Structure formats: structure tokens, C-alpha cells
Amino acid sequence: MTSARVSMSTCMITGHSLRAFRQSSRQTLSGRSSRAPIIWSHSRSFQPLPLRSNLTNNLGVKSQWKTSFSTSALRLGETKDGSASPAAVTPGTDGKDPNSLTKSIKSKLAHEQIYNIPNLLTFSRLISTPILGWLIVNDHPLYAFSLFAYAGTSDLLDGWIARKWKLQTVVGSVVDPMADKALMITVVTCLAINGSLSLPLATLILGRDVSLAIAAIYYRYASLPAPKTLARYWDFSLPSAEVHPTTISKLNTFLQLILIGSTMCVSLLQDPAALDAAASVVSAPLLGARDLLGGLDGVEMAVKGMSGVVAATTVYSGLSYAWLKDAVTILGEDEKLKKKQGFRGRMIIAGTFGSVVLVAAGLWWKELEKRKALEVTEKKNGK
């Protein structure tokens, strides 16, 4: 009689557990509330019941059945007595509290060490850019050439120091190309205003950068996954497209820097007072190059020839982004959409930079007409 009552009690408890299990399963699948509360009530449904280990065995469910449902890292490896086992801690934390580990990571990310030599050199180059422009426009060739030499040297040093001593920072990766581009735009514009650089060539150099910037704006917007919000647009942790500079583009940038330096050297050679005030380490190579090229006229002819080469490489490098399909890689899995977006971006470059080339060609033709008219006038006056 006693054994019959025990069996009956066991059956009642087992039935009650089965009903609780079914009810909790329905709640989990119904989706009427958030996942975490459902899982929490689901986990608690077995705890108040007596004979927990026996009931678990009778139901055919292992004691670790909660690991499939719980979202808490501390409950995944819970033992039979309800305490957390060593396996309950998130892997990789070495037994530490996951919350404390998260705080530690956030603390390290939020306090990146940005006060280092490479970043100081980069910011000094960015700050010196408007000063350099003012010196060029106001005809101070010696100071302008010296500051330009410092900017070029610092550009080489900051990258080398950052790589050698592992001082790369997110701020540096953003500010360094911005400083380079600001230096190039400022120097080219001021040299054109000063008359040292021809207006058609300056139009090509600046127009190419503007054209690529417009295309970059389109590529970013078109390839950004939905929703296309302003915050997500400027969130560069969401990559959507990759730009691969072409070989001719890298060569073009190098030749542009050489041309700018040579143009500033011509301005320095045309100012005897500034040349006398310069140190021998600067004046001696310039005078030697002038004598080698046959005087100041030979230097000016060499710079004009280099200007023609830079104009050709600028046109070729700008238009190469219009026909090379692998210059810009759009991320994503929709190949048809990526192909359409890539074609539109290349057409934007072709249209904008093609217009720049036509404008530069028109300016160059006007300069030729002025030179011919000036030569005719000089011949008449000479007669």
C-alpha cells in the first residue's frame, strides 16, 4: 500500500513536471514577450520541484538541459545545486566577470594614446599648411621653400616612426591623409594665384581631386546597407566600398610633389636676395642645378617640360578610375546591384573629370592665343 502511494505521488509529480515543461515550451515559441524573460521562467520551472535529479532522469532530460535556452553566461554551466561551475564563465575571460572584462575593453578603446611623435608631426604639418599658403602668395620664396621641405620630411618621418615603434592610431590614420590633401590643394592653389603654376595645370590637379571626391560620396551612399541614415553614412566602422589606388595614380602624386618643389625652387632662384640668405646646404645644390641646365632659362624650360608630363599623368590617372572596374570594390552579395553601382560611379568620374579636362584645354588654348598675340606685338615694337 505504501509503495503504491509512493508510485502514485511520483506519477503526479512527473505529470506536473511534464505539464510545466509543455507550458514553458509554448511560452517560448509564442513570441508574445521578450526572449530573456521567457527563458528565465523556463529555467525556473524545474527548480521548486522536489526530487529534481530523479525527475530529470525519469523525464529523459539531462541535468544540463538549460544550456540550450539560457542567454546568461553565468547559467550555462550551472551545477545541480544551482551554483555556477568554472565552465559557466565566458570562454577567454580566465574566470573573470564578463562585465568587468567588457568595461576593461571599453576603457582601453576610449583612452587611445594619441599624444605621440607621429601624430604631433602630422598635426604640425596640418597647422603649417595655411602659413605656407600665405608665404607663397606674399612672395617669400625662402621661407615657403623651407616650410615645404619640412612638410615633406615630416610626411615621411611620421609614417616611418609609427610603423617602427608601433604607434599607429585611429586619429593618425584619419588626419594624415587629410593633412596631405590639404597641403596639396593649398600649395597648388596659391602657386596658381602667384602665377608660378599655370592655370590649366592647376585646374587639372584640383579638378581631379574634386571629381574623385564626388564619386566617393556617391559610392558611399549607394553601397551603404539600409537604413541609409546620416549617422550610418559617417560611421566608417560600417565598410561598404574599398578604393584601390592605381599605379599611375601613385606615380602621378609623386610627380606632382616633384613639380611643386621644382616650381618653388624656380621662385627662389629668381630672388637673389633670398638665395644669398639661404644656407649653403640649400643654395649650393640649386646653383649647381641652374648651371647644369644652362642658366635660369634652362631651369624654367625643364619645369615646363615636367608640367607637361604631370598634366598627362593627371589626365590619365583621373580617367583610369572611369574605365578600370577593379579600382573601386563595392562590398555586398548582390552582384547585379554592385555592377550597376560600379558603372554609375565610373560614369560620374567620366562626366565630372571629363568636363574638367575640357575646361583645362580651353584655358590652355587661351594662354596660347595670348602668347601669340604678345609675340606679334613684340615683333611690331621691335621693327
TrEMBL record:
Cellular component GO terms held in the UniProt record: membrane; mitochondrion
MF terms (GO), sorted A to Z: cardiolipin synthase (CMP-forming)
InterPro entries: CDP-alcohol_PTase-I, CDP-OH_P_trans, CDP-OH_PTrfase_TM_dom, CDP_ALCOHOL_P_TRANSF_CS
Compartments (UniProt record): Membrane
GO biological process: cardiolipin biosynthetic process
Spans through the membrane: 114-136, 182-199, 347-365
Membrane topology, record value: Multi-pass membrane protein
Keywords noted in UniProt: Lipid biosynthesis, Lipid metabolism, Membrane, Phospholipid biosynthesis, Phospholipid metabolism, Transferase, Transmembrane, Transmembrane helix
Cleavable signal peptide: none
Residue numbers spanned by region Disordered: 77-100
Name of one Pfam family that matches: CDP-OH_P_transf
Family named by the database record: Belongs to the CDP-alcohol phosphatidyltransferase class-I family.
Protein name: Cardiolipin synthetase
Taxonomic source organism: Periconia digitata
Lineage of the species this protein comes from: Eukaryota, Fungi, Dikarya, Ascomycota, Pezizomycotina
